[in-house]
Amino acid sequence: MVKISEFQTKEVVNILDGKRLGQISDLEIDLRQGRVEAIIIPGPGKFLGLFSSGNDYVIPWRNIVKIGKDVVLVRLEEALRLEAKQEDDYRA
Question: Which residue in 2, 6, 56, 60 could disulfide with 82, CB within 3.0 to 4.6 Å?
Answer without folding.
Answer: 56
